[in-house]
Design goal:
- The protein is of the alpha/beta class and 495 residues long.
- It has 2 domains: 238 residues, Rossmann fold; 236 residues, P-loop containing nucleotide triphosphate hydrolases (Rossmann fold), CATH 3.40.50.300.
- 51% of the residues lie in helices and 12% in strands.
- The chain has 20 helices and 10 strands.
- The chain is elongated and about 85 Å long.
- 34% of the residues are buried.
């Protein structure tokens, strides 16, 4: 890919000024238009050392309203970032609708600098490539505009620029021994860059290679590409027919219901329950310490029918945990800030660091249940979400996390009994709302959506565990036992 690039291209000073005078006001207007249309934009700058990424970013943003963009410089991972999946630090920086995020180096560091420095093992390269492609696909499918530039310079030009920087005391610090080493082995680094570009140049997130030996030529090419891309997106937004969201349920029923096979007659006596809970909580307490020592993160996701017992099960879990090492994240309807981001953004921001446990009381699966049934997203949105959520969970597992998802299942009669109990009990009446009663009227639709969800998103690495919940004692023990067994099994593998 890179060997075909003509690096002799240049632009005279007079022509440069004329083109910039034309491009800059266009860019400023387009930024305002995309802001008003609520389009999130991410612009990535990658390239060889001393190719001028910082210079080109400065020239790009000179024309932009500074209130509408943020520039991120991607250095080596901090200790905090290293304790999360590598894409976590980029998910948390994805822009809200109408804003622009500019990255001076990005997630591609993992395939360039880190790979060259042997921080990214060769065996991990295929996984990293797939994670990056799924990340970019999820963003662009969700409405984010993604523009990627790779600044290309020759070995000779790079060497010349390094030398110039080192001659001045004020800029000498910018050239490191590693920079010089990469120049010395320029062909090796070029080969890695070429592979990265070839394997991540996709229809939804293509690369633009910028001939950067001549800075003026590079600036005009970058601004021209951004202006053209913004124009195209503005045109698309104006002509876009928004997906119909009519509140009707659009789903295909499964031939064989998973939920209808669940045996809800399973029970435990109070005596047996108390004995087993005590034993399991003691084991979990010790295991939590070992998780921290081994730096293993855990993600526990709880879904289920209203009044299905999620709160009670979570409470029995957390009683055995050190409060400094876990967080319970209750999920309600997204707020204005969360709605302005990709729907997975608010969950990525709460994923645990290594050695910690994140418990989600309702989860990202709302996309394929309540949002699907109530018409809060388009059919295309929720149908695409199964794959997106599988990919997110796989990325957590790739990083080393234990991921377990619980569906707490009760029948309709048991739910009605619990609703009435809550209504009649002053201490529990706050738990029941008019919406809970309304949702009962859509029981069959939710049952169908849950069946789809369980079949399409239960994987070997992130399984769904259906918890027979008509008997609360049995349900709480099963949840505790599942978590304890999963952690013990994982710790055996660590040995």
């Amino acid at each position: 890919m890179l060997e075909k690039i003509d690096l002799t291209k240049s632009l005279g000073k007079k022509e440069y000024k004329a083109k910039m005078a034309e491009l800059e006001p266009k860019l400023a207007q387009l930024q305002r238009d995309l802001k008003n249309m609520g389009v999130p934009v991410m612009i990535v700058f990658e390239g060889f050392g001393a190719a001028g990424k910082g210079t080109q970013i400065n020239r790009l943003i000179e024309a932009l309203d500074p209130r509408g963009f943020t520039v991120y410089s991607t250095d080596a991972e901090t200790s905090e970032e290293a304790m999360h999946p590598f894409l976590w630090r980029f998910w948390t920086k994805t822009p809200e609708k109408g804003r622009i995020a500019v990255f001076d180096r990005s997630w591609y560091r993992k395939l360039l600098v880190d790979r060259y420095d042997k921080k990214t093992p060769k065996k991990d390269i295929p996984i990293v490539l797939e994670d990056i492609k799924s990340f970019e696909k999820q963003l662009t499918d969700g409405g984010t505009m993604l523009i990627k530039f790779f600044l290309d310079i020759s070995e000779h030009e790079q060497k010349k620029r390094f030398k110039k920087l080192m001659e001045k005391k004020a800029t000498k610090w910018r050239v490191t021994e590693k920079d010089l080493d990469r120049n010395k082995h320029f062909d090796k680094y070029l080969e890695m860059a070429d592979e990265m570009l070839t394997k991540t140049d996709t229809e939804y997130a293509p690369w633009t290679i910028v001939e950067a030996d001549d800075e003026r030529f590079a600036t005009v090419k970058i601004l021209t590409m951004v202006v053209n891309a913004f124009k195209e997106r503005r045109k698309k937004e104006k002509s876009l027919v928004k997906p119909e969201i009519d509140g009707k349920f659009n789903g295909a029923s499964l031939n064989d219901s998973v939920l209808k096979k669940v045996d809800l007659s399973k029970k435990l006596s109070k005596k047996e329950y108390e004995k087993r809970v005590d034993e399991l909580q003691k084991r979990l307490k010790l295991l939590h310490s070992r998780l921290y020592a081994e730096r293993i993160p855990v993600v526990l996701a709880f879904e289920g029918w209203d009044a299905g017992g999620k709160g009670g099960a979570i409470k029995r879990l957390t009683r055995a945990l050190d409060p400094r090492g876990y967080a319970v994240n209750p999920t309600s309807s997204p707020n204005d800030i969360e709605r302005a981001h990709h729907y997975l953004w608010r969950f990525w921001t709460k994923m645990p660091k290594d050695g910690h446990i994140a418990i989600f009381d309702r989860t990202w699966y709302g996309r394929v249940m309540v949002e699907r049934i109530e018409g809060f997203c388009s059919t295309q949105d929720w149908q695409r979400a199964y794959k997106e959520m599988n990919e997110m969970e796989q990325q957590l597992v790739n990083h080393g996390a234990i991921v377990i998802k619980f569906w707490l299942h009760i029948d309709k009669d048991e739910q009605a009994r619990r609703f009435k109990d809550r209504q009649d009990n002053p201490e529990k009446s706050w738990k029941i709302t008019d919406e809970d009663w309304r949702n009962r009227e859509k029981w069959e639709l939710y049952e169908q959506a849950v069946d789809d969800m369980l079949v399409k998103t239960s994987t070997a690495n992130a399984p769904w565990v259906i918890v027979e919940g008509n008997d609360k004692y049995y349900a709480r023990v099963k949840v505790l036992e599942t978590v304890v067994n999963a952690i013990e099994e994982r710790l055996k593998k660590e040995k």
